[in-house]
User: What shape does this take?
Amino acid sequence: MTRAQQTISVGLLVTSLYLALYLQLIPLPDLVQAEIVPYLPFWALVSFGAYLLFRLGWNVMTFNDVPEAHKELMGEIELAKTDLRRLGVDVD
Assistant: This one.
């Protein structure tokens, strides 16, 4: 099963569970049904956004410097510059 199929499967499972709750196919107390269930999608969206923001901040904070990649990238840039100069393009 590919990653896309897994994501679609989980999304359909969560959607069908929420739809069963919203249509009152799964019995819940009236207070929960009226006050909590309608706001679950908004809560899930905000929570997912907060999680992604945390992961982005964590990855930026723990970013490792890779000197080998820097050297490789600079070498590729120099190679591209020499190719462009050979073709008559001014790159400086």
